[in-house]
Amino acid sequence: MKQPVRVAVTGAAGQIGYALLFRIAAGEMLGKDQPVILQLLELPMEKAQAALRGVMMELEDCAFPLLAGMVGTDDPEVAFKDADVALLVGARPRGPGMERKDLLLENAKIFTVQGAALNKVASRDVKVLVVGNPANTNAYIAMKSAPDLKPANFTAMLRLDHNRALSQLAVKAGVAVGDIENLVVWGNHSSTMYPDYRFATVGGASLKDRIDDADWNANSFIPTVAKRGAAIIEARGLSSAASAANAAIGHVRDWVLGTNGKWVTMGVPSDGSYGIPEGIIYGVPVTTANGTYTRVQGLPIDEFSRARMDKTLAELEEERAGVAHLL
Ligand SMILES: NC(=O)C1=CN([C@@H]2O[C@H](COP(=O)(O)OP(=O)(O)OC[C@H]3O[C@@H](n4cnc5c(N)ncnc54)[C@H](O)[C@@H]3O)[C@@H](O)[C@H]2O)C=CC1
Ligand SMILES: O=C([O-])CC(=O)C(=O)O
Q1: 232 lines ligand 2 (CB under 6 A)
Q2: What proportions of the chain, in percent to the nearest 5, are helix, strand and coil?
Q3: Beta strand pairing call for 194-196 and 184-186
Q4: pLDDT > 90 fraction of the chain, expressed in percent and rounded
Q5: What is the mean pLDDT of residues 101-130?
Q6: Does the beta carbon of 243 lie inside 6 Å of ligand 2?
Q7: Nearest CA residue ID for atom 7, ligand 2
Q8: Does the annotation count 251 as an active-site position?
Q9: What positions does the domain Lactate/malate dehydrogenase N-terminal occupy (predicted)?
């Protein structure tokens, strides 16, 4: 039997938490042979703590063989103690008519506190995924608040955007979603993101050549993916939860277990490539192996792409300036 992995989840009693924890405990994130200890954080309010107790009772009632232990707490230093993986989900979601960056100041302070707590008590190799919005800038805040941890271990979730783009492409081209490779969503998890299918292939052949529709790309594909979160809020009255949880599981699973050369999109601190200033948390294509990710480098960036990549960068720089006083 393997040693249990400690997985911290914040906002554990929220809607994403409810769609996420049971799948982690079932082994869908770290493997069907990997025991886990769930370390669950919720707000220090009776309603949130009661809801968390209820979720933990349900986890118990599933009798998951891989669930080796559980901690429920309102103290980030308890939740993050020795954590190997930290999923930072807890934050306010947006409602109809809002942009994700409208949450910035309200949610930012959560990530200074949690970054500092991770810095103090988490495993020195903790893999952090920020889901709470605005995810890229919150990941930046957490990274800057944890100076003793490796910046590369702070990531933001663009996997939901990547998955959304895959599904749109599959429908348009009449191909199986699982057969599409080499897709990327550049930049911010916001309406400025740039889903880029120029390199995508199916069975080794170019998907862009197969679709061959610049008008669809600019006026349907890109805006549909970029505005999908808002469309879900409009339809459900609540933001995406099951698909967000699914994306978080995919992000961490691939980071830990590897992609076998397949590209996935992760929001990671820039190394300066593609003209993105170092440190900005930006969606890029990566492959993963042995618990580390490697950027796909050297892709050609045409004028159309440059303009979109610069626009989403400008928004991230604006968000960073907006939280500079907290760091
Ligand atoms: N990156 C992405 O692709 C996506 C991000 N999101 C974001 O994820 C976040 C969570 O969404 P939902 O689960 O739907 O929201 P929710 O409101 O259902 O749950 C959030 C939970 O976090 C808790 N919480 C708030 N502050 C906390 C703190 N400081 N420490 C611990 N727990 C705290 C709340 O009590 C609540 O139970 C939102 O910011 C949402 O916008 C949602 C979908 C996709
Ligand atoms: O749109 C939102 O606010 C929730 C989210 O991040 C998404 O569904 O992509």
Answers
A1: yes
A2: 45, 20, 35
A3: antiparallel
A4: 94
A5: 95
A6: no
A7: 229
A8: no
A9: 5-151
Tell me whether residue 15 is annotated as binding. Answer: yes
Q: Where are the domains of the chain?
A: 5-155, 158-323
What angle is formed at CA 11 by the lines to CA 8 and CA 14, rounded to 5 degrees?
130
Tokens of 262: 């397949």
* Residues 201, 323 contacting (CB under 8 angstroms): no
> Which residue is associated with the tokens 């197969």?
210
Q: Which residues of 228-257 are buried (b: 16+ CB within 10 A; e: fewer)?
A: bbbebbeeeeebbbebbbbbbbbbbbbbbb
Domain 158-323 bears CATH identifier 3.40.30.10: no
Nearest-Å Rg of the Cα atoms of the chain is: 19
- Cα–Cα distance, 216 to 218 (Å, whole number): 6
Residue-level pLDDT at 220: 98
Answer for the pair 207, 180: CB distance below 8 angstroms, yes or no: yes
Handedness of CA 32, 55, 59, 66 (dihedral sign): positive
* Fold assignment, 5-155: Rossmann fold (3.40.50)
Q: Please provide the average confidence, as pLDDT, over all residues in the chain.
A: 97
Classified as helix, coil or strand, 116 is helix
* Tokens 């590209």 sit on residue: 263
Residue 164: its H or E element: helix 159-173
Return the number of other C-beta atoms located less than 10 Å from residue 28's C-beta: 16
**Which pair of tokens denotes residue 314?**
């400008």
Nearest CA-CA partner of 313 in 268, 271, 283: 283
Residue 78 token pair: 């308890």
pTM surpassing 0.80?
Answer: yes
